[in-house]
Each structure stands twice: as C-alpha cells, then as structure tokens.
Amino acid sequence: MKMSYSFGVGLLCVCCGSVVAQSRSSFSEVENVSGITVVRSGHTYTVEMGSNPTVRINGVDYVIETIFGFWCLSDDTNFSMASGADSGDWSFHRNSAGTGDIAGWKTNPNRGLVADESRAFTFTSFKESDRDGYGFHVRVEGRGGNTFYITGPFFEPRCIADYNQDGGIDGSDYSDFFNDWESGDLKADLNGDGGVDGADVVVFTDPWKSGAC
C-alpha cells in the first residue's frame, strides 16, 4: 500500500487568486501540514480536521479555515475504475486531464469542512494501489479569501496493526480483522485492491505480529 500523501493547493506565495481547474497539475507540494488526518477503511476515506490545522509555505504557517475538496491523486496512472456517488453538498469528481488523475469530492466553497469537523467519503469502486497521494482544496487565513490546492507527505496514516484504532495492538485487533475478513467486509481490504483475500491477511498479520504499525 502506498503511504505518500498529498494536500491539493497552489503555492500560496505564487497563486494569489482562486484556482479554478481541478486536475493533477493543480496540486503543488507545500512544506508542511498539521492538524489534518485521512483514515482509510476499505473504500471509505475519512477526512478529519483538528482544532488548529495549518499549512507551511516558505517558512510561514497559515491557519486552514476550510476544506472544499478532497481527492486521491495519481502521478501517472488513470483511475479508470474510480466511481462514487454525490453526498449532500459534495459532488463526486474525477479528472484525467494531462498526466496523472484525480478522483474525489468537491463542494460549494461556502459549505466545506472547518476545524474540529470530519467527513467520510466512499468510493463505489476504486483501486487504492494506484493512489500516490491525497489532495485538498482549502482556504487559509490571511490570504484575502483566496483558495488553493496543496500536496505533501503530511497526513497521518492509519496504523494497520491497530485494526480497531483503540490505541493499542492486541488480540481484539486480531479478532476484529478476521471477523471482517471472513464476512468479506471491505474494511478488511487492507491492500486496497478491491477484494478481500489472503493478501490482506499478510498485510495485517506481519505488522500485528511485530506489534508495530
């Protein structure tokens, strides 16, 4: 499973107006992001904003006010099997223009996620192994109301061995994983290939046995 992450926004020091197009080339890597996590469970990706999410550009930290879009990003592969349904104010969106691809959700810039909020996004079909990162459309404080697309390896990955995410690695993770695995629940699709099979057992048991994420 690829563990690089992306935060989709144009560079704040360069892009002074709102970015209109959403394509892989719209997302520029920034120096750091804190206060935002993405947790994947099967085809569901939950975006969580902390109480003080920030992005660092040219050594300056800016407070992230709102997230208006979330995408999985590919650097060089098309998400040919990616699909998803609209969810409330959030519309499913995929764009393979140019090199790479993006697939995810976007919303009206007045109705995004703010601090201490979270939202789950579920693909009806998606090949996680093609993902190279995560991308976001955000507005930050002190930039005159402009919005940006950013990317970088800053999002906290889920600890696979702590399957039930209770903060420890123990027998309950083992039983919870195998209950889901035996029922074919996509939460047990740990390698993100769209199926629940023996490969997922290997992905889980190796770190579980070592007691590490």
Write up this protein:
- The chain has 213 residues and is mainly beta.
- It has 2 domains: 128 residues; 40 residues, no CATH class.
- The protein is built from 2 helices and 10 strands.
- Strands 1, 2, 3, 4, 5, 6, 7, 8, 9 and 10 form a 10-stranded mixed beta sheet that branches.
- A hairpin with a 5-residue loop joins β6 and β7.
- The N terminus is likely disordered.
Shape: globular
Question: Helix-strand pattern, N to C?
Answer: EEEEEEEEEEHH
Q: Kindly name the structural category.
A: mainly beta
Number of domains: 2
Q: Tell me the number of helical segments per DSSP (H or I, 4 or more residues long).
A: 2
**First-residue to last-residue Cα separation:** 13 Å
What is the percent of helical residues? 10-25%
Sketch the major β-sheet.
Answer: 10 strands, mixed
Low-confidence stretches: 1-20
Query: Strand tally, please?
Result: 10
Percentage beta strand: 35-45%
Task: Give the integer mean of the pLDDT values.
Answer: 82
Q: Rg, please? A: 17 Å
